[in-house]
Amino acid sequence: MASDTHLSGAPAGRAGAVRRLLLENGALSALVVLVVGMSLLSGDFLTTQNLLNVGVQAAVTAILAFGVTFVIVSAGIDLSVGSVAALSATVLAWTASEQGLPVWISVLLALGTGLACGLVSGALVSYGKLPPFIATLAMLSVGRGLALVISQGSPIAFPESVSGIGTTLGGWLPVPVLVMIAAGLLTALILGRTYLGRSMYAIGGNEEAARLSGLRVKRQKLAIYALSGAFAAVAGIVLASRLVSAQPQAAQGYELDAIAAVVIGGASLAGGVGKASGTLIGALILAVLRNGLNLLSVSAFWQQVVIGVVIALAVLLDTLRRRAGVTPAAAGAPGTSGPGAGGKGARAARYAVALVCVAAVVAAVTFWRSGPSGTTTTKLGMSLSTLNNPFFVQMKAGAQREAKERGIDLTVTDAQNDASQQANQLQNFTSEGRSAIIVNPVDSDAAGPATRSAGKAGIPVVAVDRAVNKADTATLVASDNVTGGRQAAKSLAEKLGGKGTVVVLQGTAGTTASRERGKGFAEGIKDYPGIEVVAKQPADFDRTKGLDVMTNLLQSHRGVDGVFAENDEMALGAIKALGARAGDSVPVVGFDGTPDGLKAVKDGSLFASVAQQPGELGRMAVENAVRAAEGKETPSMVKVPVKVVTAKNVDDFS
Amino acid sequence: MSSPETLLRIEGIRKTFPGVVALDGVDFDLRRGEVHVLLGENGAGKSTLIKVLSGVHAPDDGRVLADGKEVRIHGAQDAERLGIATIHQEFTLVPDLTVAENIFLGRQPRRYGLVDRKRMEAEAAGLLERVGVRVSPRAKVRELGIAQLQMVEIAKALSLDARVLIMDEPTAVLTSEEVEKLFSIVRTLRETGVGIVFITHHLEEIAAVGDRVTVLRDGRSVGRVPAGTPEDELVRLMVGRSIEAQYPRTRPGTGEPLLTVRGLTRDGVFHDVSFEVRAGEVVGLAGLVGAGRTEVARAVFGADPYDRGTVEVGGTRLARHDVNAALAAGIGLVPEDRKGQGLLLDASVQDNLGLVTLRSATRAGLVDRAGQRAAAGRIAEKLGVRMAGLGQQVRTLSGGNQQKVVIGKWLLARARVLILDEPTRGIDVGAKVEIYQLINELTAAGHAVLMISSDLPEVLGMSDRVLVMSQGRLAGELPADEATQDAVMALAVSTTNTATQNEEGSRGL
């Protein structure tokens, strides 16, 4: 019916149909504007390879978002999908790789895990009467925790037979894209044609009316959350296959991307509205943005700003369009909406489209400066694990200084501690044909596949700070974390005179740096039998958490004699917690030698810090990447020295 | 024409919405100290006119004059400045704030930058006394009954020193007793010189409270008559033709009992309610608001639990608190709150009509959408639902057509016993008659109807038997020929003897 009522006197024919489609679907027009904008701004965007990259990079978010669509249409919310995805992948890898179960059973177990998590959330919502926000927030935490428990914090290799999902068919067609399309079709079928799907719209539209019409609302909700959990499991498997590694820390914050995709796609958080096609478009918008901003060499910090602005604009556009009175075709148009409504809606939509255009162009042009610079032919790409930490910021600064001196074009991206985002960035560097790539892996295993494909394309990869496993790298530039940990143990033990109790603040569970430093420290402290490690607790490399965790530990270990923190940030937090006791009476040893850390060493509150030289790491990485790009011989390993900094030698470092 | 007594005057107001001319050259004026009734069917333009006066909509054409000067009302602030206050059909109160806070919302008296609660509550108490309602200014609005809410809304309007008070169907949700109280407040306000625009669908209220009547039809003002005009004449003006009978009940012979309720009790809510409804019969359930009528209906339908008693349909006992059992047995509920409980407002006519039959139209998990569409088309045509198409959003239908959709979904599910809770609330005269005709057709086809209504003439006009509830108990039963307004009201206000708390109960007849 809707289509008939929209046959106004407006320009008929194909052009008219396309225009109408765009006007009726704000998200679709935003996507078109973005694609056109990106194609104009970057010659590398509109290539088959890059578009397939976009598809692959959208896949995990899209599959998660399809599951979340069910929940949102029924007026709920699911915050747990990221964690459930990680947990399911971990279950698969653990049962197959470590318990030796047949792979097909492991796959079923993984899907079952997702389903079970969803059922628990659903039961809490419908029978426990918890608000969906709270029930799934609880599941978010439980799921993440169980993934860490099962994996003991370390990534587990993903079985080879399943990892095929992360590769391509016939060498060019990426399987994740196929899985995404299949999941999308399934979602459309469920929403449009099944009893469960129609119930979702009814429950989301008016739960009480649905109940009074004989729908078994509680049971349906159970099924809806279970379905979301199952989709999360599929997304988790796709994610882990791409990285050939199941990471307990994977997909952090993906639930927010998924929700954003659903809402950008035109669904209402109030329920009753939403479509599979919209969700797909939402996920593609996010992927096109990330990909395009990488290609345009937009500064890593500004990327996040631009993404936020575009999310807001895309939804704003849709809201404006609705307020102007153009009803989406799917919801059915009232007979009263004649040409008048179209005119008014079109005007509002045009304003909104114009807004998005302006925003995209302004954003791109403003940050263009960090892009191509003159005549150089050597173009390097550098993907850092995070810029959330002074250590990596210094590494970036060192690399940029070196690049500037050599007159080289260097693009730095921030993977935000997300292995799959890093894979996307490496993929983008590869398809742009950079001369060489520098990677500071979020996770050594997970960076493998993307590094291999760069190698296949003939692009040398230099790893910095952490190694890349199962892939050839031209050079590894690193400081030795294990040795550093050992040195930290030695200096702390000697300060304590070989006896006393010590607590250890660990970094983010599952990260290489935490594992290696912890390992080195444990080995080093064994040489001093008089010293007892009374507690080891994670504080996620974070200063605030270091303060909180140390405060808590002081309740149970009042008389602690010394502290080892796996980085300076946590050490500084621990010093805050210790107050005046920090320094002479309770020595604290940190790691990294950041500016703040060195300042604390100087004023005596931090006894020692194991100093790496992040700037030097960055510099050496660029130097070796240039050599590799020029086809020159490079050493397989460059060790940047690590030194224990105490009050005695701190002046040599600042 | 224009006298100094004229507070507000509008001339040639025109307002169009996409595809619709809502107001087409409407003239209207309001004098000091008069109650000017605005009459018209739903869709005649009353709501749009009010929205123009309260600043929600800006007119496309025409003039608005206040005290003889042309003004523009572009928002609630403008209206407030001109002393125009509106009491909308849907209350605009915040449930979890107190009565006093609601009355002074956004204008709380302040001292040292803090809200001066003492003064606010004292002033609120004064206003509440003026409207004659006994409610503590400190009571939470959530705890109030619907009539009290109405009075709080009026108090709020008074606090604005309104000179023009617009009341949009203020009596729709009130019992006759409460209506009387409202009228006395309206009369008092009139004496103090306030001009009141009064909208109602109840013709008998016009003579009781009004001074002049302006009739709107299809966006035009078609007549201005004194309030004493006979009802037939008013109806003719409203619908452009005369309606033969307001309550066209035809009584087919009654058959077997379809619904039998025995000793139904929910502690503290209703007690020992027993009755039966036969095939072909319309049983009216009358009583004051709060007498427990809706609660009984919901319990019979399985929407709420009950503690004791039985519900049988065609001799089969139904499981307690199980909507699906009631549904399978053929009971359908058309709830009191049409928008809140009966409809998916943003979904299509088709989806709403097919809601109850969704399960039976499902094969192997897939819904037979084509079949559903055909069935929806058939029933919509049969009921005469006026719509652009099955894809139209239910939100955009008029109240009468929305109600037809709610009834239609039960007819599609072949419900034999229909419980209609306030089936014609907020529906205009023409559509009401259509609903009554529909009830006739249903009973003629052997359905049984239990009809709850606060509209006494409707209960008397349409029921074959009238049950009257008072304070959670059945106070009595009247056959159609004995049921008069007085008899029903006498039972409705009867206090059941507290000594009859035993299980014998208080079945009147």
From TrEMBL, chain A:
Annotated Periplasmic binding protein domain residues: 381-633
Residues annotated as transmembrane: 21-42, 54-72, 79-97, 103-125, 132-151, 171-191, 222-239, 259-288, 295-317, 348-368
Keywords tagged on the record: Cell membrane, Membrane, Signal, Transmembrane, Transmembrane helix
Classification via Pfam families: BPD_transp_2, Peripla_BP_4
Subcellular location: Cell membrane
Keyword Cell membrane: yes
Keyword Ribosomal protein recorded: no
Record's bilayer topology term: Multi-pass membrane protein
Domain of life: Bacteria
Family: Belongs to the bacterial solute-binding protein 2 family.
Protein name per the record: Substrate-binding domain-containing protein
UniProtKB/TrEMBL annotation, chain B:
Organism of derivation: Streptomyces lycii
Cross-referenced Gene3D superfamilies: P-loop containing nucleotide triphosphate hydrolases (3.40.50.300)
Name this protein carries in UniProt: Sugar ABC transporter ATP-binding protein
SUPFAM superfamilies, alphabetized: P-loop containing nucleoside triphosphate hydrolases
A molecular function (GO) term: ATP binding
Keyword set, alphabetical order: ATP-binding, Nucleotide-binding, Repeat, Transport
Keyword Coiled coil: no
Top-rank lineage group of the source organism: Bacteria
Domain ABC transporter: 8-243, 253-496
Signal peptide: none
